[in-house]
Design brief:
Largest sheet: 6 strands, antiparallel
Shape: globular
Number of helices: 10
């Protein structure tokens, strides 16, 4: 896949020695089993799901993103390599992939609660310096992993390489329907993803980039020795958490009652629902919680949910409060960034990263809102479009500013 990335002159492969405290030269760590406590362990190979495509249009967006055929910043097109080794580049050739895949896209039937999944977007990445040599190694390793775990089962896919991240990584869009008749639709369980990570680690190591793929050990929660008294039981914990949630609910309602409320209502309700789900799961899993105490715990959780449901939700009003929240954050960020840039220009130094990091967080939150949360809200389509257009413009401005100034800082 020689046309998938830009060649560079530097290979960054010399592994220059570094001077130790005593003045002796020590070779840079190259992996292997070293008993030294100062040796850095090999990094973890990464295989992660970036998203699923429930509609043909979303499959097209995935392929367009990887191939950069609709890149408004007009960056260079990326060649997509399909499972048969053919390179597809540009609008027409990417559309050919969609046309080949379309016949297997099933429509969602009436009464079906779960969405169909036509394709999945995977990212396979290595923890290494971003150079042409390391990119080529990562592509070769990812290609063999995809062939083994996806291609051999008959699932069509297209992979592409972006070089604007911190580490070499490969994007792959995989169709969930196999060409083989008896092969079921593609499902990526945690166990299957772990197997793919292990394969990627082996292939990267084979290419000279030593990686591992291990499960992170679960940390056991222990009670600190300086805490007095016995640990509270689950019923007491339910009562304490619900007390805190009621306090947060009152604060939320007061914030919404202001003249021009600025509240991220979606984030609040998501966090509230997650807290209640976690609390219920803990009560369910606690075998020591029995009899009346167990029934009381579930009654308390159900009672709180009913309280919230009785108060009701005004979707359009809450959307307005959420948009006000983002507009307020945007205004504060612009003001802080402007001050920082003015000071930096006056004293002749580089701008600090504080405001820029805030901008990155703001960009990420707006992207989550307009890209996912907004679509799920029960408000008129025209209102959604207006909110999307309004915040999309701000998002692109923030993104452009972040990329420009972060690039200068680096």
């Amino acid at each position: 896949m020689s046309s998938g990335f830009k060649p560079e002159d530097d290979e960054y492969g010399s592994g220059r020695a570094r001077r130790g405290k005593a003045g002796s030269l020590r070779p840079a760590y190259r992996g292997g089993t070293s008993s030294s406590k100062t040796s850095t362990p090999p990094p973890q190979a990464i295989v992660k799901v970036a998203g699923w495509a429930p509609t043909p249009a979303s499959v097209k967006r995935m392929l367009d993103y990887v191939a950069r055929v609709e890149d408004k910043e007009e960056r260079e097109l990326v060649a997509l390599e399909t499972e048969d080794g053919v390179l597809r580049k540009g609008r027409d050739e990417v559309d050919e992939i969609i046309e080949e895949w379309k016949p297997d896209f099933e429509r969602k039937s009436k009464g079906r609660s779960n969405q169909t999944r036509h394709a999945v977007h995977l990212v396979l990445s290595a923890k290494a310096e971003l150079s042409a040599r390391n990119v080529a190694r990562t592509v070769a390793a990812a290609r063999r992993v995809l062939e083994k775990h996806v291609g051999e089962a008959g699932y069509p896919y297209a992979l592409g390489v972006h070089q604007d991240g911190k580490n070499p990584h490969v994007h792959a869009v995989i169709k969930t329907v196999s060409r083989e008749k008896d092969v079921p639709k593609l499902r990526l369980t945690p166990a299957r993803l772990l197997e793919m990570r292990k394969s990627l680690a082996e292939e990267l190591t084979r290419e000279g980039l030593e990686h591992v793929a291990s499960r992170m050990p679960r940390r056991e929660k222990t009670r600190r020795a300086n805490m007095k008294g016995e640990a509270p039981n689950t019923l007491q914990k339910v009562e304490a958490v619900l007390k805190k949630l009621r306090k947060e609910q009152r604060q939320f309602e007061r914030a919404l009652g202001r003249k021009e409320p600025k509240v991220n209502t979606i984030q609040f309700r998501q966090q509230q629902g997650k807290a209640l789900d976690t609390l219920r799961a803990q009560a369910k899993d606690d075998t020591a919680l029995t009899g009346k105490d167990r029934q009381e715990a579930f009654n308390l959780i159900r009672g709180f949910r009913r309280e919230i449901e009785k108060k009701g939700v005004n979707p359009e009003f809450e959307m307005k409060a959420t948009v006000n929240h983002f507009q307020s954050r945007i205004a504060d960020w612009k003001k802080e960034l402007g001050k920082d840039m003015a000071i930096a220009h006056t004293v002749g130094r580089k701008p600090s990263l504080k405001a820029l990091k805030k901008g990155e967080a703001l960009q990420r939150d707006i992207h989550q809102f307009i890209g996912s949360d907004l679509r799920q809200q029960d408000i008129p389509v025209e209102t959604k479009k207006a909110i999307y257009a309004q915040l999309r413009k701000e998002f692109l401005e923030i993104k452009k500013t972040n990329e420009r100034w972060m690039g200068r800082e680096r």
